[in-house]
Amino acid sequence: MSSNTHTRRHFILSSCASAVLPLAAPSVLRAQQSTDAFPQSEPAISTQVPVQRNLSAFQQQDWRDHFERLGDGCLLADISSRALHYWGPDGETYRLFPSSVPLTEELTKRGYTEVVRKRENPSWTPTSSMRERDPTLPQRIEGGAFGNPLGTRAMYLSWPAYLVHGTHDTRKIGRQSSSGCIGLYNQHVEALYPIVKIGTQVRVL
After folding, report:
1. Per DSSP, what are the bridge partners of residue 117?
2. 35 Cβ partners below 8 Å, 6+ apart?
3. 50-99 pLDDT tens trace
């Protein structure tokens, strides 16, 4: 990785911190900023050119621009900026994480949904459409097994086969790399998982 890329990454992380500090809420919770969550060396995914992190992914948003009420909390998956925003029901908790997004517009589902169930170390079963695109996919990968694309935590949406989940492949974050789901670093999904309630509102924008 070139020194320019390293400098750019350092600037993005600094922007992330400064974007959330000015919030008036007294208990702002920021995305984890560790060297393992934001690796300094990422080999290219073989099928695509690496995508540089988008600075707009770290800009604060207001839940009122997307939801009528907080209810049990709100999640906003912003496809264009490749970021996931969370607002807690207390009106004070706010978290912002970089995310992976769907590979194509065809695989992207936009609109309103909600979290309907949650799983630790979820198993993964490819959908029929995934297997059509790649017949070499396994029938199933058990939770916690090597190569499981759902990482360590998964939050299932009311739309079948759409999830917010972790990933062991950190190269995918900040890129168009999923079959429709929103992916997070495992460290981030593990921080988010315990505070997201069943019934949390979700908007994919």
Report:
1. 156
2. none
3. 444 544 446 789 999 999 999 999 999 999 899 999 999 999 999 999 99
